[in-house]
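ok, trying the design again with the full structure, not the truncated one.
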């Protein structure tokens, strides 16, 4: 009785070569796909980390600008009345009013502490246009002298020289800046009670 072995392995050399070649092509294809997928994931992860770091720097720049605004507001509002301690009329009939701090109304603040230490803050202050009637930068309402200040505060991590913002084009990599603007008014009355001379 003759038996046929249907499960005998192929002994044809061409069959073996075809099987081996197909396996190598499939393995190379899978390796290329996995490598591309890994590169894409690494790229997305890097972009997310970079974006997150810039977001954190942006928040710190904003807080630095706020600190500069607080400093500038304190200078022009004279909350402790350091300018009129004994007399609300000053040297004229008007109280002594604060002027914009810094040379030409510009002050560069450095030396912030903690996480804000990499930032430089530039405070720019301007008064309203001169009043033609009294020759100073004020508005008068009755006995009251009202001075108006505009504060523009820039904070950045890579200043031009010692001032912000950086004027380079394009800005350097990793550059972050924030700007805050405020308009403040200070009112003093020569007929008010000393030492604050405050308007009622």
């Amino acid at each position: 009785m003759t038996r046929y072995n249907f499960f005998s392995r192929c002994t044809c050399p061409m069959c073996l070569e075809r099987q081996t070649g197909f396996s190598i092509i499939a393995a190379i294809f899978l390796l290329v796909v996995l490598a591309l997928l890994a590169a894409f994931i690494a790229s997305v992860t890097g972009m997310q980390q970079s974006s997150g770091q810039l977001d954190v720097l942006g928040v710190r720049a904003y807080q630095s600008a706020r600190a500069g605004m607080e400093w500038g507001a304190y200078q022009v509002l004279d909350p402790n009345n350091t300018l009129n301690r004994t007399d609300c009329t000053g040297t004229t009939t008007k109280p002594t009013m604060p002027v914009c701090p810094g040379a030409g109304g510009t002050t560069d603040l450095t030396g912030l502490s903690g996480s804000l230490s990499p930032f430089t803050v530039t405070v720019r202050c301007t008064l309203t246009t001169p009043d033609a009637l009294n020759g100073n930068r004020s508005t008068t309402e009755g006995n009251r002298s009202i001075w108006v200040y505009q504060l523009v505060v820039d904070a950045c991590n890579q200043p031009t020289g010692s001032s912000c913002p950086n004027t380079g084009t394009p800005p350097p990599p990793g550059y972050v800046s924030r700007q805050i603007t405020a308009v403040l008014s200070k009112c003093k009355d020569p007929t008010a009670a000393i030492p604050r001379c405050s308007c009622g």
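Keeping the full-length input from now on. The first strand starts at residue 106 and ends at 109.
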